[in-house]
Every structure is written in structure tokens, then in C-alpha cells.
Amino acid sequence: MSTQEQNNRVLKISILRFDPHDPEDFPHMETFEVPEAVGMTLFIALNYIREHHDNSLKFDFVCRAGICGSCSMLVNGKPTLACRTLTKTLEENITLAPLPLFELIGDLSIYTGKWMRGLNERLETWIHDKSNELNSDKLEERMEPALADEIYELDRCVECGCCVAGCGTIQMRENFVGAVGLNKVARYHLDPRDERTDEEFYEMIGNEDGVFGCMTLLGCEDVCPKDLPLQSKIAYMRRMMLKTSLKN
Amino acid sequence: MKVIYTDVLIIGGGLAGLRVATGVKERGHDCVVLTLVPPKRSHSSAAQGGMQASLANSVMGEGDNEDVHFSDTIKGSDWGADQVVARMFTHCAPKAIRELAHWGVPWSRVHRGDRTAIINAKKVTITEKDEAHGLITARDFGGTKKWRTCYTSDGTGHSMLYAMDNKAHQDKVEIHERLEAISLIHENGRCYGAIARNLMSGELVAYISKATTIATGGYGRIYSVSTNAIICQGIGQAIALETGVATLGNMEAIQFHPTAIVPVGILTTEGCRGDGGLLLDKDGYRFMPDYEPDKKELASRDVVSRRMTEHMRKGKGVKSIYGDHLWLDITILGREHIEKNLREVKEICENFLGIDPAEEWIPVRPTQHYSMGGIRTDYRGESQTLKGLYSCGEAACWDLHGFNRLGGNSVSETVVAGMLVAEYISDYLESAESHLSIHTANVEKFMKIEQDKIDALLVKENGEDAYVLRRRMEEIMMSDVGIFRNGEDLQKAVDELKELHQRAKNIEVFRSKSHAANPALVNAYRTQKMIKVALTVALGALLRTESRGAHSREDFPERDDANWLKRSITTWPNSEDEMPTMSYEEISISSMEMPPGFRGYGKDLTIHNEVTPIRQSAVDATLKELETQGKSRFEIQNALMPFMDKLPKKYQGRNERFGENV
């Protein structure tokens, strides 16, 4: 935190605060002033506030490198990863709020872990291969290099929850699996190691809480910090599931 | 008092912890994983470049096997590693990667035919064999003879962790999230679990277990600039230390990674240099060949970090408001390669530096990265002094890495150690000695100690500010216990840390007085623990009057095998002690498969031990004799240093390898 930006801006960061453990507390905005520094991110700015203004401020950072997906929040109303948001890309007045839809722990800290775990259990996001017993001494199964790359592309999701917060459908259907869920299904659907049939996937997402619930507003694609191809994967899964339903 | 009983308590939900969990589950035991954050957010996810396993599928890995991986690892460790552990590890790494492939990791694969690669700044064509098409491929990394580092683009840790966590879901592993272990319950040299604090509600919970595993990662955050996630604060090591019984090993062995971006210290993978990237100075001059003509940018990490620092000290660094740095040039790899195989690096450059690494150079400098030291265990991952306490992964020192870890060996270690330790714990649980007998009154006593400490922090007045103490500790570690060390600075560091430790007893939690979710309270008790850990590092570094691996003393530049071929062991016997207690554990040369030699970097400054030539001739004689008899490499290895009987039966099988036995 040394040299300041040339224009010596003092950022005014307004944060939606609430401690659900404190019966006296109620949701309110609080504004803090932070002298901007070169290369400052919201990670640095929020830690500055905690260290110099209010050490009770709650937020979640882990990797602070845009890799782990912990620090998603609403930055001026838009869901994004705070750690990799440079303050120089924002106006002097900044508004921060916790991601909606997830359980609030306090201030900007939310319980995405619980939501995501529920989703993973519901969609059984693991390789289903009843027939295949592994002998790890043996040469691994082969896979086409291009296919491995394609699976990795979808495997890059960091479960940050931005797509859920940016989703119009989930506002109306609270059990909607969201783009994060549909992307995961697309990932396992693509993976030849997973032996689930289209019919089995249909049982899971061939309904209004799944792929047919999406209203195609595509806020998810706009806000995904990893630029996952959510639009095309949702469309693809919808075609596959439609085909499956017609077949049966 | 809330009490939860389980067979195995696992503290830490990263790769190592989760692999222990699925392993003991498979053997039919019950476990609970405590984790600060959702497991998928653990620091394992930040590992970028890859996992070492000697599959030898790519043409550049031809001839690779367990022996070569072993030899690279021992040289890399500057002979500090436990060679039996290194043998167990290199034997199991191929199994671990195949297991992960089975669980869904989309490892990058070999593509038959020609492809272009950059080697030593030149374009070369590599022709992959038809028969290897579709097998797991590998890239080059520092300090390795073969291309052995398997990867998924540069998101290897992420893919591994996601597959591992999904496997844990599948196996219905119980995960207690946002729970922090703050002390271990122990009695008469036996560990019985931990007292944990719920970070959301503040509630204290006693977890009683037959076996307890610490897999909490490293302690990089005792330094002010580190590539580590902010949760890597050494709390696992601290609670082990605070038992007064468990020991820590080689705490002074700290690795600095050559290429973290300036100023924020975020990692750019060694894969950048492995794939052909270069280090340049302020004049755009490639300086590494001048220092290390053989391995150049791909010398071992400790060596590259020191050479970079030396070069900057000669005035060749690029000046910036954040101090000097050098350049990492990956533009020569081309946009297509970067966008496919180095995409996290590209995102990091775009988001944190505002540059496009396919067009511009990346400002980098060596930054704290890895903790070779940790909770001292035997080859089974169990503490040598506290029965029932296990540890694995970066948290532990079992001791695979000695004084310098090779890139690509860390994530590999997490899953290999996890799968082995799960078996040893299961064996223990199936034996009579694992039975529990601890009086609940004693559990309550441990609970009360922790509750009293927290209450004291919250009611204290006119005390110290934890942030001030912590920042000072971080600065001391950075400036006086860094890449190059000397007696004077280290003494200063120890003295001041000792004083900080005293002051930390007087910490007051300002303003924020909630017993529930309270970051100020968390910072207060963690700071107290971190300062203790910092003291073990600084004191270990001060007393070790030699240079070995990443521990580099300007006043003692020689590696001194005559006096220092031993592990540093730290304890904190009484909570009132002002300083930790150090002792040493001899490393026996006479049982080594690979007696100490020259690593091949710079000038050979080794002071040899008198046993070394004796053991070397014995090894040479055995080698010669068995080779003339036409014995296999396995038989020869077994004659030199048997290890197979130490492995669980299920992992003793010979690895299939393309071109060797397939």
C-alpha cells in the first residue's frame, strides 16, 4: 500500500452490512473511505477497511487470485469475483453487497459451500461407472486429446455462484439448478467415463427445475468470471433432452 | 458441551485430507472432515502446472521410471529427504494419477504425430508415437531429467481437487465446513481429537476420535508476500506444536518460487518456463545461461530464485515502485499455446496486471511459495511422539522434499500420501491399540482452556493490536528469514519474534466483541499461533549453520554433510516457555540408496561426511555385482534399500509403463 494513483483518489466504498447473529442488527449501508493505491483490488481495499476502520467486517477471500471462487459479491450491482476487480476500473463511489439467494453469514460473507454441495449431491456430479473396476497398476484408459480438452473447458467452473445470482429463472423457481448445474451435467454427459444414459440424465434435469426451466435470459453467461460457454451448453443439453423425451 | 465422536477426524479439506477421507471410508471406517472453507476452495486448487508421475508416455518422457523420479527428488532435496519415503512416493505416483483419471480428471493427452515445442528458445518438432495416442501426456519442469509433469492446462490442482471432492460426495464423506480446529485433545502421549470452533456461530465443539489427521497445508502466510492462499497460516502446525508433545520437522526449509507477479505475489506456474518461457533482465538479456549453463531457466526452484536475486543485486533488476523485479517472457510460446495450456496465467496477467502475456513480458520475482517443513511423522504419516496423530500433504514432514521440493511433486505428494496414510490409519483402527479411553472431564478441561482464551481476548482492555504484531512478524520473516540468510539478521529476527510472542499474550480484540462470526477474534488467536510458528522457522534457520537446498546462509555457503546431515526437530514443551526447543535427528548415510553427491549447480561446496565414500563404494559394488548377474532394476533397487514391505499390499504392484512392460 505505498504509492497512490496519480489522481490520489479516495474511494468511497458503501457496503450492505448485516449480522444475522445479532438480534439488534438490521441490514444497513455503511460507507468507508479508502485511499486508492496502484494496482489496488477489492481484496486489498476490503482488508484495508478491516484493518483500519472496522475489524468486524465479514467477507470471504481464499486464493485472492481469481482461482478459488470464494469472493463473489455484487460490485455496483453486478455479480463478480472481488479479488480480481481492480479499483481503477471502477468509479470513486463503489457499492458492495453480498450475492443474493445464498444463505448470509454476515456482511459480504455467504454460504455458497452448502448450496453447491446440495447441487452436487442432487446432480451426482461424479463419474458413474458400475462396470469398471480400477486396477491402478495398469495403463490408464485412453482418451482423445481433443475430448480431454473439451471436458476440461467445462471443468473450469469454480462454483462461485455468480451465474446463480445473475439468473432470472431462479428468482421464480427456487429449485432451479442454474447454469452451474446444467454446465456440470453437460460436463459429465460429454465424459465417456460416465456411463449414465440420456434417459438417466433426463430423469435428473428433463423438467422445469432443470433444462426446460431456463428462460434463456442468459445473465449467467454475462457474469461468468471464467467465460464458460454456458449459453451453448444449455442449448445443447436442451436439444439432447428434447431428443430423449421424443425417443421415449 | 457438544461432543462428536468419529473414528478419524481429518483437519483440512484439500487434496490430502479428502484422499485420506475416501481411503478410510473405503476400508469401512467413519470420518469427519473439518474445513475452514468449502473443500473445493482449498489451496490445492491453486496448483497450476502439474503433477509428477513417471508414466513416460510422451516421447520426451521416454526412459523415465520410478528410479529417475527418485533420483531427481533426492537431488532436488539436497539429500535432506527420507529416501525410503521418496521410494514409496515415486512408486505410488503413477497409481495415484491413474486413480484420479478414473475419478474424472481430464488429464491432457498425447496426440500422435508432429507438434512444435520451444526448447532452449528454439522451435523444435516433437513427434509423438502412434501407440501413445490418448495416454496422459507430460510437460517439462525444473530439476527433472525427463518430461514428467502431467497436467490439465494450467488448472491441474483445480481439476484434481474437483474430482477428489466429487469422489468424497459420492462416498458420502461427512464434511463440517467453516470449522476450525484450535487445539488438540491429548493425554499420556495419545491424541484423542480436537477442539474446534464454528466460524459462523462461534460455538466450540469437541471432536473425539481414535485417529486425528492434520492436512492443513503450509505456513506461507507468516511472510508478508506469499503465493499461498490467505488461509495457509500454519495453524495445523501450531496446534501440533502447542501439545508440547508432537514435533515439527525442518521448519526452516522454506521454498521461494521464482515467478510470482509483482507486487501482489500471485503465482505464474513453472510450466511457463517448462514450456519454453525465458527469464530476462532490465536490458531484455537472458541471464540464466550465464549462471546455470546446463539447466538454465529449468534449474531447481531454489537455484533459480537465488540466481535471480543475485542478478538483481548486481543492479540488473527492473526498477519499480514496488522494488526490483525481472521479466518472464512467454511471448515466444505463441498465443495459441498460451490460450490452451497457460490460460490461468493469461487470466491472472489480464486481471491483475492489465497485460496480455502473449504480447508483453510479465514482471516477476521470487516469492515465498512452499513449506517443506511441517509436522514430523514417520513414513506412515504418524507423529513419532504423539500416538494417534497423523499428518500428510504440505502440513507434514514425513520427509519427501528435504530442503527443496521439485515443482510438480506437491500435488503428487498430497494424493500419494493421502492414499497411503488412509491405509495405515485403517490398519491402526483395526488393531486393539486404537481403542479409546479418555474421561469426559478431561475433554471438558481442554474445552474450557480454549473457551477461557477466547473470553480473555474479548474482555481484554488496553492490550495489543493483533494486526500490528502480525504485520511486524510478516516483515521480519520477509527481510531477515528470506532467500539469502545470515547469522546477524537471523539473530535479530529471533530476538524480535521472541518479543512479539510475549506481546501477543496481551492481545485485545478491539471493537468487534461478538462471540459468533468475528474476523477480528479469529485474527487475534491466529496471530498468537502464527508468531510461534514463525519462531520455529527463524530459530531453525539461525542454528543451521550450513546451506542446504532452499536454506541458504551467506555466512555458511557450504552444504555441511559432516555436521548437518540431520533434520531439525522443534517442540514447545511448556506453554510458558519463551522459545521453542530444538533438537536434531540424524539422517543415516549408511542405509541410503543414493549417498550424498553434487547436485550439479554452480561450484561444488559440499563438506562431505566420512561415511559417504564408504557407502558410495558399497553401493557401487552391489550395483556392479548385480548388473553382471543380469538382475533387474527392481532387484538391484531392493538390494540397495528395500522399501516394498513398508507399503500397503494393495499398492505393491509393479506399474505398467508404455515401452517398458507393455
Characterization of this structure:
The complex is a heterodimer of chains A (248) and B (662). With 248 residues, chain A is of the alpha+beta class. Chain A is 35% helix and 14% strand. Chain A contains 9 helices and 7 strands. Chain A has a 5-stranded mixed beta sheet. A two-stranded antiparallel sheet of chain A has the order 6-7. In chain A, a hairpin with a 2-residue loop joins β3 and β4. The longest helix of chain A is centred in the last third of the chain and has 18 residues. Chain B starts with a strand and ends in a 22-residue tail after the last helix. In chain B, the strands form 7 sheets. In chain B, strands 1, 2, 7, 8, 9, 10 and 17 form a 7-stranded mixed beta sheet that branches. In chain B, strands 18-16-11-23-24 form a 5-stranded mixed beta sheet. A 4-stranded antiparallel beta sheet of chain B has the order 12-15-14-13, with helices on one face. Chain B is built from 18 helices and 24 strands. Chain B is an alpha/beta fold and 662 residues long. The interface between A and B is large, with 68 and 82 residues.
